[in-house]
Amino acid sequence: MKAFVICAAHDAAVNDIPTPEPGPGEALIRVRICGVCGSDLHAYEGSQPFFQYPEVPGHEVVGDIVRVVPRPGGPLRLPNRPIEDDLAPGERVVLDPGMPCGACHPCLHGRYNCCENMRVIGVHAPGALAEYFVAPLECLHRVPGALCDELAAVVEPLSIGVEANTRGCVSESDTVLIIGAGTIGLCVMLVAKSRGARVAMTDLSAARRAKAIQMGADVALDPRQDDFQEALRQFGAGSAPSVVVEAVGTPGTVAQALDLVVAGGRMVLLGLISDPITMPGNVMVKKELDFLGSRLHGGTIPQAVDLIADGVVDVSGLVTHRVGLGGVEQALTLMAQQPDEVLKTLVSVAQ
Ligand SMILES: [Zn+2]
Ligand SMILES: [Zn+2]
Fold first, then answer.
1. Residues 167 and 188 sit within 8 Å (Cβ to Cβ)
2. Contact 147, 174 (CB under 8 A)
3. Which ligand is nearest to the CA of 76?
4. How many whole angstroms from 302 Cα to the centroid of ligand 2?
5. Is the pTM of this model over 0.90?
6. In order along the chain (351 residues), what is the average pLDDT of each group of 10 residues?
7. Around ion ligand 2, which residues have CB less than 5 A away?
8. Domain boundaries, the chain
């Protein structure tokens, strides 16, 4: 089969490699469309520490089940993990790329998305930027016939937005500030709006701020503008935001989030930061903050499917580029060079 293989940092090619064989409890899936994620770019650039070269990246996928090998004893069930029973060849599915161990404390207590031994398809195992890939049956979710392939390919990033809103307990009584209007920030915004919250976004890029407004944010602000604090207060009718979501991933924006969130509020951290975060410790106490990490998707894929399929959330604005397998390397380069313009690139493999 043809597959986009990252051989080493900045070295990738479409290669002919053996079609994978599903083992017990797995399915072979023929890929229709796979989206390109920021984490795929990190693998290409050599800044994804868990990526083992050579490997096929890709996890934002919709495809058709070709073959199923049942697991003796049935599916691996974990608390809070939605399972689709009786998946069969011919069914169209999307992927939850996380493969939790099923044995650690978070796995056994309804928090399998932060499994201590998490393996992710497209990072620790062959991904879906290929004609076929293999996945555990527990990772696959049916999509309704009315949901087109392109929008189904955006389910996985939207489910990250569902997880962040779930962590932040976002409801219609909230004013939410999202720092960073990239793909993930926009997904958080779409879900927060669907819950009835009012949403402000900040981004340094004017193009991204325009996109945020176009896709439904109530306000999009430049954090460098002189009247930034005043504009934010106006947005909150005199109050600071009740939830602040950090979707950039720098220590500076975390400090900004802690500063901007209202006392008694919630801060959700999505950005992956390896540097230490420094902050005055008394802020946590004085504001009695809930400081919440948000990782992958804890059972939120079916909710994301429903939000898109029911027309509650319109993700079509996220899709900015379309290529074939042969265009992936160029798409990754463009993504790195023009981050303001490239949101989601969809790779058509077969339709
Ligand atoms: Zn992704
Ligand atoms: Zn685990």
1. no
2. no
3. 2
4. 21
5. yes
6. 97 98 98 97 92 96 98 93 96 98 97 97 97 98 97 98 98 98 98 98 97 98 96 95 96 94 97 87 93 95 98 98 97 95 96 58
7. 100-101, 104, 107, 115
8. 2-154+315-348, 161-293
**Spatial distance between the Cα atoms of 104 and 294, rounded to a whole number of angstroms:** 18
Q: What is the pLDDT of residue 109?
A: 97
Query: What is the number of the ligand closest to the CA of 103?
Result: 2
CATH topology of domain 161-293: Rossmann fold (3.40.50)
Q: 22 CA to middle of ligand 2, Å? A: 22
| CA of residue 119 to ligand 2 center, whole Å | 9
Q: How many CB atoms lie within 10 A of CB 338?
A: 12
Query: Cα(6)–Cα(333) distance, rounded to whole angstroms?
Result: 13
Q: What is the CATH number of domain 2-154+315-348?
A: 3.90.180.10
% helix, strand, coil for the chain, step of 5? 30, 25, 45
pLDDT computed for residue 351 by the predictor: 58
The ligand whose atoms approach the alpha carbon of 60 most closely is 1
Domains 2-154+315-348 and 161-293 fall in the same CATH topology? no
Residue 243 and residue 174 in contact, taking contact as beta carbons nearer than 8 Å: yes
Q: Which two tokens stand for residue 112?
A: 């399998």
Q: Which residues contact 194 (CB under 8 A, 6 or more apart)?
A: 307, 312, 313
* The two three-digit tokens of residue 313, written as one number: 């959330």
pLDDT at position 113 = 96
CB 195 within 8 A of CB 166: no
CA pair distance 268, 261, nearest whole angstrom: 10
Q: What is the pLDDT of residue 232?
A: 96
